[in-house]
Design brief:
Elements: H1 3-16, H2 21-33, H3 39-45, H4 57-62, H5 67-80, H6 96-102, H7 111-120, H8 125-140, H9 150-153, E1 159-161, E2 172-173, E3 175-177, E4 190-192, E5 221-224, E6 234-237, H10 238-256, H11 270-273, H12 277-285, H13 292-303, H14 316-321, H15 331-352, H16 364-367, H17 376-380
Parallel strand pairs: 3-4
Antiparallel strand pairs: 1-2, 1-5, 5-6
Amino acid sequence: MQLDFHYYATYCAAIIAGYSHKSSMVIAYSSQFVDCCSRTLLSRLKGPASAATTQLQLELMDARTDLIGLQDITRIWASFHFLPYDLYAKKKRASREYKNKFRLICNPNSDLLLDTVDLGLGHSLQSIGIVMHVLADTWAHRYFAGTPSLVINNTNYHFYEMPGPEDTFEERPVVFAHNPSGRDDVEKGYYIGSLYQFQEHSIMNLGHGRAGHLPDYSFIRYRYLPAWGDYEEIVKDNPSDYLHAFAQMVYALGYFRGEYDSFEKDVYAWDRIKPWEDRIRAIIRKRQLTAEADWKALGEDLSGCEIEDFDIKKYQAEYLAADKEKKDHTFLGRFFLAAMAQKSMVTGKIFQSGNLLAGISIDYSLKGFRGIREFRKLVEEERI
């Protein structure tokens, strides 16, 4: 997903769920900031390196693809953008190495989503914003895994867009090209994807890179043969998935506000979004590379307040100026704590399943802190 959904649509969801304009802005900003919090930024802010929630293209180009480097990449992308669906999934006649990658494939309504939502309960609005990002991406990024892998994430020429109405059979082949300076052309069906690399662990095979930005566009419907799919075709219906993502976000936000006793899988706030459902559907289905203006207009109609443009620098001065002991109480400090908690939880679950693709996880509350001292904060932090 892009800024249009992670920022503006998330704001809309928060307003519909009953949050104030001010709180909705914090949640929306934190959701979008997941796509911005790189090690490059953290280094400039002298923030905790373990709080990285994304990697810049330049960082990925320089990233190691040995075991340690791959584990570092997986910790970030599986924790925040490709939440694994089933860490114990069965796969007949498959090696352990293959199954470990297969088990990182993303899909909505996983046990890890329940853990992610539970982790946000009772914590900061920044933490809730991170949950919104992770939840939304389970719908957009389904069928791909947050680890570099050709045998899982590759696509081929069997890739067709279905640009017409759902009750028609209209379709056309999708043309992918590797052109970093190029731009997707919706009308011609020409899209930018990562360069084919036969090396299994090439960074070009991370996530949905081979499918370009198609998973990030709410309007698109397509069918293709995933590398892991045993030659079975998958139809990806983004308009339906994005609507479900929005309705599930509203439901989760209602849970955070105390409206429900528990958060359950496959439950959506259809009743809450019904007054605006036609308008939401129209935004989602509109064929455009970004829907920022449409989501912003809806959000401002919902709240009667102006939505600020996203500014990556907005809270940096506050964090830099804060005394060392007060940094954790700044806007970005709260985000960093929530990010480390999410990464630690997901990495721990992957490790506990017997899968080492995200590295070794240590329960710092039991084993002590001989290494990553910054994680002490996670144990000492109290719920607010």
